[in-house]
Amino acid sequence: MADPGMEISSLLHKLHLSSSPSDPLPAITELLSQLQKKLIGAVHNSCENSSVVGQVEHLFQTADPDWLFPSVLDDQENEWVELRSAYKSVISTLIGCAALPICEDDCSSLDSAAYQSIPSRATAVCSALTALLGSWDEGCRARRDKTGMTGLLLTVAPPIFLFSVTHFQDQPWSTASSRTAARHLHEALVRVGGWRDSAHLLMGDEYTEDRGILGGVLDVLLPQLTKDSWHRCEAVKLVFAWTLLQVTRPVLSPFLPRLLPPSLLLNDHYRPDNCMLGVGCVHHIVLNTPAADLRHFNRAEVLYQALFKHLYTSEAAVIQLVLSCLLDLLLILEKPPSSASHRKPCRHDDVLRLVLTHMEVEHKVALRRVYASALPLYVERMGVAVCRHLRRVERVVLGYLEVRDPPEETSRLMILQVLQRTIKVAWPRMACRVDVLLRCLLRLLVDVSSDSSVGGPVRQELMDQSSASIRLLDACSEGRVQRLLLQLDSRCCSTQTRQAEHLNRGHHI
């Protein structure tokens, strides 16, 4: 069996890091400095890059862990600083061997051909780093200087974390094999640090002395997320968003000043995909930050203004995310209009007014569905204060119930919910609108019963919801609807419509 020491010496000789295979092994910090220079020289040479990274992996696999991570007393801080610096530098250089190409502008993304060589390089680097973590795990078990070793791991973990997250995502710069290698690297990092999962890795444990690496990750990531540089690397925004979504209460709040600016930067971008990513980040921050912290320094108002302007866009996917986020953010800025202490017009009114205005003239099916799906929650939040918008609500209800939306009839079903909730909270104001609303609902029953493009379950749901709306109208008008239904000419109706009519006549609220 070959002597590991001789094997390492021979490997160092092949790497041109020693003059002879018989030379004694150098100090690890000296070797890491030489190895870094070797890796820097191989970055732009594909053939040499693959060979050198493979030899580095072999070095980490076969070397004695006690040599890779020499014993240093906890009070010898200078030596620990030197060792941490050496490993951080060589790992950063190793990761640079699989660095993504830079995009020169923010107008377009690089095509897949630009990433052609990245997956194989990333796979090799992942294997080398996984081997290093394996040696660290093996060498740390019997060590007494746990504090120093933990400090070393916390130093090298952030760049390894960011590299693994970059390459395990399904993107043009990754393949199935490179994603698998990146996932193995990520799992190895979580395992050697004794963390439970990615969230624990980032946040640590507030009840113990376990430290997370979120601060270190942001130290590496944020310099790449400035206004002038974030668009140069396609992966940076995705890694930031993925990382942010792992961080929850109560850890997120102290990092808010560092997490909010990049989120707003993405939110403000003109490209819908970047904008959606930013809105998602902002929504996660809103959900996981105490209201007092968001109101501090007027942050919540800044977020509101940044989101409100998106209500003027014509991108359905953006509008959907924005309306959902605003619904949660508004509760931080003010009390719900339905509360007894809130009677003056407020931001809720501003959002609902703009949404209803856009709904009246919107003709795109996708946007109509998004608006219709969001409206019931806003009407419910408004409560009796929806009376301030009854004319607009009425026009929207009438307009949307008249237009088919096959095959699921999402818009009509959602608008029927809006009508029912409006009747329940604003019933004293509905009596004068009974005639026009009843006429619209009966016309809907006739249309649906004769429309062959509507499936059976959907047709039944529409009939049921329409009937429920008619019964509510009857209740708020003190039986006037039943009197009007007696005047209905049953010869003009289908069997299903007549059944709905009889049900409404015989139903007492």
From TrEMBL:
Q: What is this protein called?
A: TELO2-interacting protein 2
Out of the domains of life, which is the source?
Eukaryota
Q: Where are the transmembrane segments?
A: none
The similarity comment for this entry is:
Belongs to the TTI2 family.
List the InterPro entries hit by this protein, alphabetically: ARM-type_fold (IPR016024), Tti2 (IPR018870)
SUPFAM superfamilies from the UniProt entry: ARM repeat
